[in-house]
Amino acid sequence: MEIIRVPRIMHDTSMKFCMTGRTIGFVPTMGALHEGHLSLVRRAKYENDVAVVSIFVNPIQFGPSEDFEKYPRDIEGDTEKLKKEEADIIFMPEISSLYPDGFLTHIEAEKISEKLCGAFRPGHFRGVATVVTKLLNIARPTRAYFGLKDFQQYVIIRKLVKDLNMDIDIVGCPTVREQDGLAMSSRNAYLDRVQREAAPVIYRCLTEASELIKSGIINAQYIKELMHERLLKEPAVSVIDYAGVYEPETFDELSEIKGDTLLAVAVRIGGTRLIDNMLVESRENPDLNSGNIKNKVSQKKEI
Ligand code: AMP
Fold first, then answer.
1. Any atom of ligand 1 within 6 Å of the Cβ of 187
2. Which option is the CATH number for 2-173: 3.40.50.620, 2.40.70.10, 3.90.226.10, 3.30.450.40?
3. Quick one: DSSP state of residue 252?
4. Is 186 in the pocket of ligand 1 (CB under 6 A)?
5. Fewer beta carbons within 10 Å, N or C terminal of the chain?
6. For residues 293 and 149, which has the higher predicted lDDT (pLDDT)?
7. Is 22 exposed, middle or buried (0-12, 13-18, 19+ CB in 10 A)?
8. What is the pLDDT of residue 174?
9. Per-residue confidence at 282, pLDDT binned at 50, 70, 90?
10. Burial of 72: CB neighbours in 10 Å, binned 0-12, 13-18, 19+
């Protein structure tokens, strides 16, 4: 396994793979790797000749009062894990090599970046879209792998790749959970024992809401209210940023469930912000489900 820190070397290495006809699977991460990340790495490895994993805590996607400084970092542990997975390359650029003095250019998928997490983290998705565009330009992958745990991020990346005519398949990968349902996240490390025990309420809330939809309930407001009630019953939940029922491409809040439906939650437990989501097919309207987003989790090239 090779560790590359310089963007130009990463780029040239990828171009050599391309020129010899080898496919590159790319997994962008911020490190502190867990099984969720590693599931993406395994898939990248399985579906491509070469697996490249980037580790970069991207300063421009954190707000001024967010956790950039204290975001968990574990380069040694990450390197060991990636060696075990037989990743081929770790790309670990310095901040100054991605954002040199005078950096001025940003990427933004309008509208969809302002909804859900975007409404509570202004500039977050602009930072994500910018760094992912840069990383894709440097690593030149055939396919890039993203977790559906960050569903909005996945949709935004798919959109920017399409809008910017980038010849890359964006592959969405299922959320990996702890045994009690909590979605794995590097930020789970911030939770104390009581908070950790409370955190699976998010998964239970999503599961219950999805069961209501599957049982035929189409009143989205009713489901939203039940979700809020469920979350607020848990004393460790200090703030609900959002919890509700959304259209999975636009993230508009739904009043009535018609087709594929995104259930999404962002809460604070103590000082830790946790997000999770679930995509639900509505049995009520099976016609609307053909060509749905589930079938598009591996986006084909649309140039
Ligand atoms: P991060 O390091 O948090 O930026 O995440 C890097 C990638 O791993 C993103 O595409 C995430 O969506 C994905 N990811 C994070 N947690 C999980 C999880 N529990 N299951 C699947 N993918 C995940």
1. no
2. 3.40.50.620
3. P
4. yes
5. C
6. 149
7. middle
8. 98
9. low
10. middle
| Number of other residues whose CB lies within 10 A of the CB of residue 168 | 20
**Ligand 1 centre and the CA of 33: distance in Å?**
9
Q: What is the mean pLDDT of residues 260-288?
A: 84
Who wins on pLDDT, 75 or 298? 75
Q: Are 210 and 278 in contact (CB under 8 A)?
A: yes
Ligand 1 mean position, distance from CA 13 (Å): 25
For ligand 1, say whether the CB of 176 is within 6 Å of any of its atoms: yes
**Is the pLDDT score of 292 beyond 80?**
no
Burial 224-260 (b: 16+ CB within 10 A, else e): bebbbebbeebebbeeebbbbbbbbeebebbeebebb
Show which residues are catalytic: 37
Comma-separated ranges of CATH 3.40.50.620 domains in the chain:
2-173
pLDDT tens per residue, range 108-150 = 999 999 999 999 999 999 999 999 999 999 999 999 999 999 9
Q: Looking at ligand 1, which residue's alpha carbon is closest to its atom 13?
A: 147
Identify the three-state secondary structure at position 274. Answer: strand
Task: Write out the DSSP string of 155-201.
Answer: HHHHHHHHHTT---EEEEEPPPB-TTSPBP-GGGGG--HHHHHHTTH
Output the CA 46–ligand 1 centroid distance in Å: 18
Q: Give the class (CATH, top level) of 186-286.
A: alpha beta
Parallel, antiparallel or unpaired: strands 2-4 and 89-91: parallel
Nearest to 277 by CA among 39, 98, 123, 115: 115
In the chain, ranges of CATH 3.30.1300.10 domains = 186-286
Residue from 26, 29, 30, 170 whose mutation best tests the ligand 1 pocket (most atoms within 8 A of CB)? 29
Q: How far is the CA of 202 from the centre of ligand 1 (A)?
A: 17
